[in-house]
Amino acid sequence: MNATTAVDRAAARGSDETPPRRSRWRRRKRAGEDPAGDIIPIEMYGLKRGTTTFITLVCALFAIFTLTPIAWIMINSTKTQANIFETFGFWFARPFVLFRNFSLLFQNVDGYGTYIQWMGNTALYALLGGGGATALAAFAGYGFARFSFRGSRMLFYLVIAALLVPITAITLPLYLTYAKVHLINSIWGMVLPSMVSPVGVFLMRVYVEVSVPRELIDAARLDGAGELRIFFRLALPLMVPGLMTVLLLSIVGVWNNYFLPLIIFSQNQLYPLTVGLGLWAQRAQNSGNAELFPLVVIGGLVTIIPLIALFLVLQRYWRSGLLLGSIAN
Amino acid sequence: MSSTAIRAPAARTARPRGPRQSAWIHRRDRRGLWFVIPFLVAFLLFMIAPLGYAIYTSLYTTRIIGGTTFSGAANYTQTLQSADFWSGVVRVIIYAAIQIPVMLVIAFFFATIFDLGVAKWGTLFRTIFFIPFAVPAVVGAVMWSFLLEPQFGPFVHFANAVGVHNVDFFSSSLMLPSIIVIVIWEWTGYNMVILYTALKSVPRDVVEAAILDDTPLWKIILRVKLPMVRPAIVLLIFLNLIGALQLFTEPLILYYFQPQAISVNYTPALYIYWTAIGDAQYNLAAAAAVVLGLVIVVISVGSLAFRRRRGELG
To answer: Which of A149, A164, A310 shows the shortest C-beta gap to B297?
Structure first.
């Protein structure tokens, strides 16, 4: 199929005739039959021929835009520093040094730190911080959604209002307090603040509202079950898709966090990947002789692979998307 | 969706409510506080307390000789008079005013397409568009720095190939558009997924009724579906605005690569960072952070209020 005809067809509107399939569907609809399954078949929208092709083409263009940097980083992770600068960015060049570049990730190349250690740090911070954030949000979201204790509404709005506070206004004083309580260069200085996720609480509350019926909880109470038991045995299993979404969002949040670790860590063996890569990017530019650019490129590539894998594996959960969709209700 | 069947107000009012009953409800509801307390403790320690400390710090001045003294509004006066700070604020406002509408229009366009199912391989495209969300801003900015680099970057080659010579994506006039492209690349997929899930929950009968009334498709999209996903759009505007006004990572990484192309005080968050970490003027930085917070509150709450008023009129 070629692009120009699709464009021409899409542009050549004007005739008022309804495509035959649409009218047939309509007749059956009026007659009270339900011809379609769950989704309205696209024939019913009365689109001109070629529209699908044209729209698919637009999607493909945006997909190319989206994948361009990813393709670039994959191709250039196989190049030497000279080739990164001197050869065409979207094709391979000899020598093919992917494996040599990869092995650099296990060495302390310029005396400023080892990639693999930063990766371990990042995974640790993301698991502890993201897991903690999800647990706290699950409890709090359930508490806000299913109990109306005194001040609960006000507290909830306070939590939401905290979204407006700039990260800098929180991180700077954290740094100053850490200096006093010896939390500078401690992993807890990174993990504990990461556990506070107002968005997570908001999403869990919304999710509990739509997925954990009050009647079920009340019935369990009449049977004499304790509140904690009700939460763990009854509510929590129903909250799993929501929990997965919050967990995923919090892990990504910690994994990608740059500002907090940049400020609070001064020892490079504690850096997460983002700070380490930022440091290398800076040094690669300033110290011309060290071959740091290939390290930045392969390091960037290896940083994004685990997260993309995580998304594809957990797709089922976040794509069910009930959670965010229900915001609209 | 199933929410009507599940949601509880009906069941709640149906229960007989004697005095004993309401006391029971009261006691039961008080127990809810225990579920919220773990989060609240962390919230107080790592959000409210630091914020309070920032305000406290901003009222003092530390000198090498003389130590820390109370200086009242001095740091605020200095921030409010700082041209560096305000030029950054103006820049992120312009940036937000362009980046957010463009991104939301693109995101809504694709969300609509995937919701209607009018593109082939919709699921595949949806997955591809979401990928950048998994890419840390640091890595995204590094990749784009290479792609847009003025001497060897492939995009300059492309521009030459199509006859546009001597483009410098990092010149002072193109820097902001370049950052906008980078951020659109990073966040469109995420916004799209949220809009897509919101569109999915538009009741089917409403759309069917519109089709039976011979409503053209574009009208169904703009007059029927768009108003129904309005809450999701408002939420996205709100979240994107808060993020945009705190723009930090992308310009900092670009600064590492092209120190001559971007000023150190390009955004207010960078101004605060350099004031605190570069110059060790923590008190001044704290004051600037508080002012930035107020700017964010005024703009985001103001935009919400504006939308509400328009909604009432319309």
So the answer is: A164
Count of the separate structural domains present in chain B: 2
**How far A24 CA lies from chain B's nearest CA (Å)?**
12
Within-domain flag for A105? no
What residues 247-286 of chain A have any CB closer than 8 A to a CB of chain B? 252, 255-256, 258-259, 263, 273-274, 277-278, 281-282, 285
Alpha helix (H) ranges present in chain B?
3-6, 9-14, 19-43, 49-58, 74-80, 83-116, 122-130, 137-148, 154-161, 175-200, 204-212, 217-219, 226-228, 230-245, 249-257, 268-273, 282-313
**Considering the domain boundaries, does residue A80 fall inside one?**
no
* Domain ranges, residue B45: 17-70
The CATH number of residue A151's host domain is: 1.10.3720.10
Are B164 and B30 in a shared domain? no
Q: What is the pLDDT of residue B290?
A: 93
Residue of B2, B13, B39 best to disrupt the A interface, most CBs of A under 10 A: B39
Q: Does A177 lie in the same domain as A324?
A: yes
Q: Is the pLDDT of residue B44 over 70?
A: yes
pLDDT at residue B171, rounded to an integer: 82
Give the minimum alpha-carbon distance from B274 to chain A in angstroms, rounded to a whole number: 11
Residue B143 lies in a domain: yes
pLDDT tens-digit map of B161-213: 887 777 888 888 889 999 999 999 999 998 998 888 888 878 888 888 888 88
Q: Tell which B residues from 57 to 86 touch A, by Cβ distance under 8 Å.
A: 57
The mean of the pLDDT values for chain A is: 82
- Rounded to 5°, the CA angle B230-B232-B235 comes to 110
Instruction: Determine if the pTM surpasses 0.95.
Output: no
Q: How far is B173 from chain A (nearest CA, A)?
A: 22
Query: What is the band of B24 on the pLDDT scale with cuts at 50, 70, 90?
Result: low
A215 located within any domain? yes
Q: How many domains in chain A?
A: 2
Chain A residues lying within 8 Å of B2, measured CB to CB: 210
Choose among B131, B142, B77, B12: nearest CA to B284: B77
What is the structure's pLDDT at B72? 78
Cβ neighbors of A160 (< 8 A, separation 6 or more) are A198, A202
User: ipTM score of the complex?
Assistant: 0.84
Residues B151 and B256 placed together within one structural domain of the fold: yes
